C-alpha cells in the first residue's frame, strides 16, 4: 500500500481523506494556502506544506507548487478531493508523468467526460438512455431549427464545455431560437473558450438522480445505488438523500446494472457518478462526474463502505473490495450542506466562529473542518460542514435530521441551518414529491408572501 499521500484540497474533504489515510496506516500531507495555516487539516495531517497565497489560482490550483510539495515530502500519490484540480485532466497527466499516482480515473477518462458532446456520444454507444436532440455539435441556426422541429419545443441549448448548469438556454418556440442560439454560442465562447453547443428536448419537471459507480484496474465495475439531489438552488445542492423516494426497486436495479455495464465497458478506474434526469419513470443521461462528490457520505451510510479508502485501494491497483452480491443497501440517509451564508439572501458570511457544538448521537455524522474559535476565510466556497443522518426508514431519518439540526450550535457567523429547518417542514419534501425546480419556486413564493405582509 502507499506509505504517504498528499491531499490537494482543503476543508472538510481534506479532513475526510486524512481520516481514511490514518485508518489505513498511510501518512498524510496537507498542502495549504497562507489563509489556511490554522486549519484542522493542517493540524491533523502528519505533515503540511504551504503552497501559496489565499486565492485558489495561487495555491490549490497551483500545479507546480503541489507537485513540488509532493516531491519534497516523498508522497507517492495525490488525492484531489472535489472541486479545484479534481477534474483537470492536465493535472492528472502531470501527476502521473512526475511519477506519482493520481487517486482518480485516467486523464483520458476525465477528458472524455469533460466534453459533454463526447460524453453523451460515448455513453449512448455503451447503452445509456439520453435525452433526444442533436446527435452532436450544432453548427448553424438552420441545422438547429431542424433538430428542434424533430424534438419538439421546448428545447435546451447546452455548451459542450459547460456542465453544472453553466451556459444553458431554454427555448420555448421557433421564433426565439435564432437569438437564443447566438447568445448560447457567444456565452459558451466567453465562459469556456469553446463555442460548441448541442441541443436537447427540455424536460420540464425532472428529478436529479445520480448513480455512484466504481471501477478497478482488473476490469471490475459496480454501482452503489443512487442519490437524489433534486433539492438545489442555482445549481448548488442543499439536500441529498439515498435511496431516492421516487424510485421503485425494479427501476433502481435496471439503471444500476446499465451504469455498471458502462463502467466495465469503458475500463473506468476509480469513483465516479453518472448523473441522470428522471421524469415519468424514465432516465436520461446528463453528465458524468469523474471525482468523489460532496454527497458521497449518504452512499457510505446506506452501504457501510468507506468510499475514500476504496478510491485509495483501487488507485494502488488492488481489486475492488466489494462485489455486487456483497453490496446491500440498508435504510435511508440524508445529508444537508451547511453554508456560512445568510439563510434568506445567500450572501456569504465569513468570519470567526465564536461558539460551536457538533450534533451527535445514534445515526448522526458531522463532516466538517470547523472548530470553536476558527475563522472562516472569505476566499473559498461557503460550505462549513455536512450533517448526515441515517435511519431505518426515510421517516426516521427525517426526524433524526430535525433533532440533529436543533442540537447544532454555530455562532458568530450566519448559517443556512434555519433554511434547512424550514425545508424539513415542507409538505413536498416530507412526501418526497419534489423536483429540481421545487426549492427555487417555493423560496420565491415565500419571499413574495413576506413582501405582501
Ligand atoms: C436539462 C434540463 C432539462 N432538460 N436538460 C442543469 C445542469 C446541467 N448539468 C444540466 N441541467 C439541466 N439539463 C434537459 N434536456 C434541466 C437542467 C436543470 C437542472 C438539472 C439538474 C439539477 C438542477 C437543474 C436546475 C435547472 C436546470
What does this structure look like?
With 453 residues, this protein is of the alpha+beta class. It has three domains: 4-103, Rossmann fold (3-Layer(aba) Sandwich), CATH 3.40.50; 132-201, ATP-grasp fold, A domain (Dna Ligase, domain 1, 2-Layer Sandwich), CATH 3.30.1490; 207-452, D-amino Acid Aminotransferase, Chain A, domain 1. 36% of the residues lie in helices and 27% in strands. Strands 13-12-9-10-11-14-19-17 form an eight-stranded antiparallel sheet, with helices on both faces. Strand 6 (155-163) and strand 7 (166-171) form a beta hairpin. The protein is globular and about 60 Å long. The N and C termini lie far apart (63 Å). The structure holds ligand MV4.
Structure in a nutshell:
The protein has 15 helices and 20 strands. An 8-stranded antiparallel beta sheet has the order 13-12-9-10-11-14-19-17, with helices on both faces. Strands 3-2-1-4-5 form a 5-stranded parallel beta sheet, sandwiched between helices.
Features:
3 domains; Dna Ligase, domain 1; alpha+beta; D-amino Acid Aminotransferase, Chain A, domain 1; 453 residues; 5-stranded parallel beta sheet; Rossmann fold; 15 helices
Amino acid at each position: 500500500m502507499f506509505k504517504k499521500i498528499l491531499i490537494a484540497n482543503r476543508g472538510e474533504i481534506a479532513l475526510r481523506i486524512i481520516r481514511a489515510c490514518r485508518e489505513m496506516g498511510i501518512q498524510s500531507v496537507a498542502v495549504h494556502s497562507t489563509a489556511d495555516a490554522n486549519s484542522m487539516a493542517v493540524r491533523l495531517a502528519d505533515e503540511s506544506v504551504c503552497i501559496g497565497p489565499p486565492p485558489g489560482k495561487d495555491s490549490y490550483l497551483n500545479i507546480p507548487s503541489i507537485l513540488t510539495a509532493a516531491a519534497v515530502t516523498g508522497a507517492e500519490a495525490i488525492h484531489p478531493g472535489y472541486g479545484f484540480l479534481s477534474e483537470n485532466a492536465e493535472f492528472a497527466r502531470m501527476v502521473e508523468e512526475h511519477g506519482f499516482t493520481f487517486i482518480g480515473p485516467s486523464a483520458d477518462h476525465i477528458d472524455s467526460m469533460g466534453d459533454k458532446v463526447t460524453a453523451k456520444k460515448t455513453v449512448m454507444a455503451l447503452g445509456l438512455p439520453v435525452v433526444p436532440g442533436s446527435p452532436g455539435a450544432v453548427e448553424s441556426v438552420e441545422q438547429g431549427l431542424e433538430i428542434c422541429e424533430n424534438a419538439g419545443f421546448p428545447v435546451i441549448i447546452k455548451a459542450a464545455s459547460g456542465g453544472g448548469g453553466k451556459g444553458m438556454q431554454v427555448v420555448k418556440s421557433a421564433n426565439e431560437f435564432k437569438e437564443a442560439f447566438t447568445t448560447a454560442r457567444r456565452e459558451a465562447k466567453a465562459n469556456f473558450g469553446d463555442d460548441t453547443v448541442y441541443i436537447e428536448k427540455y424536460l420540464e419537471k425532472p428529478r436529479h438522480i445520480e448513480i455512484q459507480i466504481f471501477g478497478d484496474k482488473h476490469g471490475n465495475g459496480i454501482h452503489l445505488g443512487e442519490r437524489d439531489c433534486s433539492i438545489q438552488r442555482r445549481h448548488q445542492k442543499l439536500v441529498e438523500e439515498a435511496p431516492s423516494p421516487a424510485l421503485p426497486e425494479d427501476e433502481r436495479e435496471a439503471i444500476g446494472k446499465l451504469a455498471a455495464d458502462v463502467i466495465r465497458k469503458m475500463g473506468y478506474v476509480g469513483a465516479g457518478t453518472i448523473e441522470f434526469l428522471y421524469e415519468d419513470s424514465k432516465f436520461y443521461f446528463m453528465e458524468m462526474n469523474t471525482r468523489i462528490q460532496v454527497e458521497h457520505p449518504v452512499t457510505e451510510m446506506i452501504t457501510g463502505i468507506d468510499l475514500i479508502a476504496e478510491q485509495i485501494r483501487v488507485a494502488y491497483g488492488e481489486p475492488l473490495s466489494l462485489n455486487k452480491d456483497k453490496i446491500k443497501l440498508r435504510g435511508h440517509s440524508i445529508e444537508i450542506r451547511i453554508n456560512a451564508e445568510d439563510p434568506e439572501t445567500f450572501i456569504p458570511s465569513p468570519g470567526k466562529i465564536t461558539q460551536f457544538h457538533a450534533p451527535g448521537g445514534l445515526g448522526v455524522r458531522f463532516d466538517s473542518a470547523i472548530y470553536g474559535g476558527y475563522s472562516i476565510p472569505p476566499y473559498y466556497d461557503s460550505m462549513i460542514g455536512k450533517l448526515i443522518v441515517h435511519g431505518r426508514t426515510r421517516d426516521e431519518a427525517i426526524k433524526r435530521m430535525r433533532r440533529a439540526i436543533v442540537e447544532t450550535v454555530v455562532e458568530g457567523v450566519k448559517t443556512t441551518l434555519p433554511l434547512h429547518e424550514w425545508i424539513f417542514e415542507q409538505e413536498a419534501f416530507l412526501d418526497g414529491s419534489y423536483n429540481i425546480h421545487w426549492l427555487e419556486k417555493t423560496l420565491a413564493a415565500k419571499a413574495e408572501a413576506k413582501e405582501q405582509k
